[in-house]
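F.,

This is the one I mentioned.
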C-alpha cells in the first residue's frame, strides 16, 4: 500500500498507540500533526497541495492527527485514495458522543473549539470522515453493547468499514481487500447519505434508527428552541446525531447548517441566496429508541402555522428569537 495512512480519533492514548503500531508494521515514518492553526516547520510538507502528493517521502508516512485538526482542513484527508482510520474506544463511544466538554479549554474568542459539546462534535466528525472505523478495547464489552456501538458507527458513516480491531496489520489487510477508492471525504457521513436517499448501513440493530425530516415551512425560532429542549429530554428517544439544513422565519433569507451532537447544537449561516435552496428543513436524525412519529410532530409544531405563513416574512421579523445571533448576517426588514 504505497500511500500515506491517516489515523484519527478522539481518544488520544488509543489513537497514538494504534498509529505507532501501524507505522512500525508498515515501515513508515510516524508523524504527529497536532498544532492548530499553525503547522510546525518540519511538518509543513504534510499539509500538501495537489502537486506534492507524488513525493516518495510523503507517501511513506503514518499521519497521527491531533484532535484539534478537523479532517476537512487537512489536504491529505481530502484525497479519496488515502485511507483514514478512525480509532474508537468501544468502552466509551456513547459517552464520547454525549460529551459536553469543549475541545480546547482556553480557546480564543470566536473559536468554536471552545464551544460546549465541541469534543463530541469532533468525535463524530472523525467517524463520519473515516474509510475504516476500528474499535479497540472491545474484548471486555458484552455482545449486545458491541452490536449497538458498531451499528451506531455504521449509521454515522455507511461508507466506512467497521471492525473490531485485532491489530493494525489485520485492519490494513481488510482495507486492501476491498475497493481502493472511497467516496470523497464530505460524502461519507450518514446524514449526507440519508439526505441523498442512499442511507444503507452495513450493520443494523433494532435499537438504532436514522430518519429524514423534511418540512417546507421555516421554523418559528422560539418554538424551535422549545422543541429542542423537548427532544433533549429524551421523550422521543435518545437522539445521538442530527445534521442537515434549515431556515428560521426571523432569518428566512439565510440557509443554515443544522449540526447537532449529543446535547449541543450549532445553527450556522451558509448562504443568503434564496435561489441556492428552497425554504425547507431537510435534516437527518440518528438515535436510539426513536419514536419517529413523535419526533416529527414536535418539529412540525415548531414550524410556522397557516396564519403565520399567510402573514408573510415581514411579520416573521417580530417573532421572539432566543437563538444565538449570526454576527456576519444582517437581516433587514423588507
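My design for it:
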Amino acid at each position: 500500500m504505497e500511500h500515506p495512512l491517516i489515523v484519527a480519533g478522539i481518544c488520544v492514548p488509543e489513537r497514538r498507540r494504534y498509529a505507532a503500531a501501524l507505522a512500525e508494521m508498515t515501515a513508515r515514518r510516524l508523524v504527529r500533526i497536532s498544532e492548530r492553526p499553525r503547522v510546525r516547520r518540519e511538518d509543513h510538507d504534510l499539509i500538501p497541495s495537489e502537486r506534492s502528493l507524488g513525493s516518495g517521502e510523503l507517501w511513506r508516512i503514518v499521519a497521527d492527527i491531533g484532535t484539534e485538526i478537523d479532517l476537512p482542513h487537512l489536504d491529505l484527508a481530502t484525497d479519496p485514495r488515502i485511507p483514514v482510520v478512525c480509532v474508537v474506544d468501544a468502552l466509551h463511544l456513547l459517552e464520547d458522543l454525549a460529551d459536553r466538554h469543549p475541545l480546547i479549554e482556553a480557546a480564543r474568542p470566536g473559536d468554536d473549539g471552545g464551544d460546549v459539546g465541541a469534543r463530541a462534535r469532533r468525535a463524530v466528525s472523525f467517524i463520519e470522515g473515516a474509510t475504516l472505523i476500528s474499535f479497540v478495547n472491545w474484548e471486555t464489552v458484552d455482545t449486545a453493547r458491541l452490536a449497538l456501538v458498531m451499528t451506531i458507527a455504521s449509521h454515522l458513516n455507511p461508507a466506512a468499514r467497521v471492525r473490531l480491531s485485532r491489530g493494525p496489520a489485520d485492519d490494513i489487510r481488510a482495507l486492501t481487500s476491498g475497493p481502493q477508492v472511497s467516496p470523497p471525504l464530505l460524502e461519507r457521513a450518514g446524514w449526507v447519505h440519508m439526505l441523498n436517499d442512499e442511507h444503507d448501513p452495513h450493520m443494523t440493530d433494532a435499537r438504532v434508527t436514522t430518519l429524514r425530516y423534511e418540512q417546507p415551512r421555516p421554523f418559528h425560532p422560539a418554538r424551535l428552541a422549545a422543541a429542542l429542549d423537548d427532544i433533549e429530554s429524551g421523550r422521543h428517544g435518545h437522539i445521538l446525531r442530527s445534521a442537515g439544513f434549515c431556515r428560521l422565519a426571523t432569518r428566512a433569507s439565510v440557509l443554515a447548517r443544522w449540526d447537532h451532537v449529543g446535547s449541543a447544537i450549532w445553527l450556522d449561516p451558509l448562504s443568503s441566496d434564496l435561489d441556492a435552496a428552497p425554504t425547507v428543513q431537510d435534516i437527518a436524525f440518528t438515535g436510539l429508541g426513536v419514536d419517529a412519529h413523535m419526533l416529527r410532530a414536535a418539529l412540525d409544531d415548531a414550524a410556522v402555522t397557516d396564519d403565520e405563513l399567510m402573514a408573510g416574512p415581514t411579520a416573521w421579523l417580530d417573532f421572539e428569537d432566543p437563538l444565538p445571533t449570526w454576527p456576519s448576517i444582517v437581516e433587514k426588514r423588507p
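The longest strand covers residues 238-246.

Talk soon.
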